[in-house]
Design goal:
14 helices; 14 strands; alpha/beta; seven-stranded mixed β-sheet; about 400 residues; three-stranded antiparallel β-sheet; Aspartate Aminotransferase, domain 1; about 40% helix; Aspartate Aminotransferase, domain 2; 2 domains; globular
Length: about 400
């Protein structure tokens, strides 16, 4: 049997990522491919670094997109900064804190684990107690925006604690960049990684990272080689360094970088403050609509991430059946719960281009219909009116 070309349907993506990709970015992806050492492409690389510095709010020289998804950005931060025998304090309040633990262990280091309830933010006071009890900690690692729960932690306070106790900080900003304030220099964060497919509305497959001067000094003073050749910043710098001749390291994903460049131009044109305000406003509308349907949130309002909404599945409503109904009847995707929350919650994304009122209206209508079909009683019109009232 002959296999023909793949033509996917047009979905509305309101899960934990990827988000809807803006048409401008899709157009950028289809532009003519240049060689990865072409002078014009190298000029675009420099622009991408400048745009990423704006998105991160940093002047860090070592700021670039890793040619792989956010998980590789996470690994890049750990393998470059962590050596065998080091001690790393890791805050765990969801799935992605656990992944940090995995990285520490694979680097041959010791992970000091500080746990918090899933759905709650990391508590700085508890972190400080752990730092006092472990004076030889080299790095404090935490998730700014925990994608598995929708909890937003106080990155500024946690980075300040790292400085107070002479440790570096590693910050997971995969879901926060472009959606909520992320102020790398002001907060004195040392190593921060993100992803292209969340609030930047780009396609999956790239991971912006940034390293402070203090982090770069640690990388350069390593006693052991970085365990990953591909993610060794000492080598990548030869390709992504400022100006001059670029040393071949790997064949960059040229067209994917066109898309990231376009997404960052769009973020620059909208303005970070406006992007943060848009995500907050759309979250307010979604929250009002969901609450009108009788759906409650996992995370309390003051710790809630606006672009990733974890909500409890109402009693009597089937998780998988509802998500399948949305996909089959409305080409609409929302996410399932992970880990301890699997089967108990839905994760609804409002990231980047997905953070639009038309998406919220579609979701409220489709979700009400899907739940009513299972015997749950709710009114889509009332939910939509509640959502719209927040924007009036």
């Amino acid at each position: 049997m002959a296999i023909s070309s793949f033509h996917p349907p047009r979905r509305t993506l309101m899960g934990p990522g990827p988000s809807d990709v803006h048409p401008r970015i899709l157009e950028a992806l289809g532009r003519p491919t240049l060689g990865h050492l072409d002078p014009l492409f190298i000029g675009m690389m420099d622009e991408t670094k400048t745009l990423l510095k704006y998105a991160f709010q940093t002047s860090n020289e070592l700021t670039l997109p890793i040619s792989a998804p956010g998980s590789a950005g996470m690994e890049a931060c750990f393998v470059n900064l962590v050596e065998p025998g080091d001690k790393v304090l890791v805050c765990v309040n969801g799935v992605f804190g656990n992944r940090m633990i995995e990285n520490v262990t694979r680097c041959g280091a010791t992970a000091v684990r500080v746990d918090f309830p899933w759905g709650a933010a990391v508590e700085p006071a508890a972190v400080e107690e752990a730092l006092k009890a472990n004076s030889d900690v080299k790095i404090l690692a935490f998730v700014h925006a925990e994608t598995s729960t929708g909890a937003l932690s106080d990155a500024q306070a946690l980075c300040a604690l790292a400085k107070k106790y002479n440790a570096l900080s590693i910050v997971d900003a995969v879901t926060s960049m472009g959606g909520v304030p992320l102020l790398v220099d002001k907060w004195q964060a040392d190593a921060v990684y993100s992803g292209s497919q969340k609030c930047l509305s780009c396609t999956p497959g790239l991971s912006p990272v940034t390293f402070s001067d203090a982090a770069v000094a640690v990388i350069k003073a390593r006693k052991h080689p970085v365990q990953s050749w591909f993610l060794d910043m000492n080598l990548i710098l030869g390709y992504w360094g400022e100006g001059g001749k670029r040393a071949y390291h790997h064949t960059a994903p040229v067209n994917a970088l066109y898309g990231l460049h376009e997404s960052l131009v769009m973020l620059q044109d909208e303005g970070l403050d406006n992007a943060w305000q848009r995500h907050a406003a759309m979250h307010g509308a979604l929250a009002a609509g969901l609450e009108a349907l009788g759906i409650s949130f996992v995370v309390k309002a003051e710790q809630r991430l606006p672009q990733l909404n974890s909500v409890y599945i109402p009693e009597g409503v089937d998780d998988a059946a509802t998500r399948q109904y949305l996909l089959a009847n409305y080409d609409l995707e929302i996410g399932a719960g992970l880990g301890d929350l699997a089967g108990k919650v839905w994760r609804i994304g409002l990231m980047g281009y997905s953070a639009r009122m038309e998406n919220i209206s579609l979701l409220l209508k489709a979700l009400a219909e899907a739940m009513n079909a299972q015997g749950y009683t709710c009114d889509a019109a009332s939910a939509l009116a509640a959502a719209e009232a927040t924007l009036a």
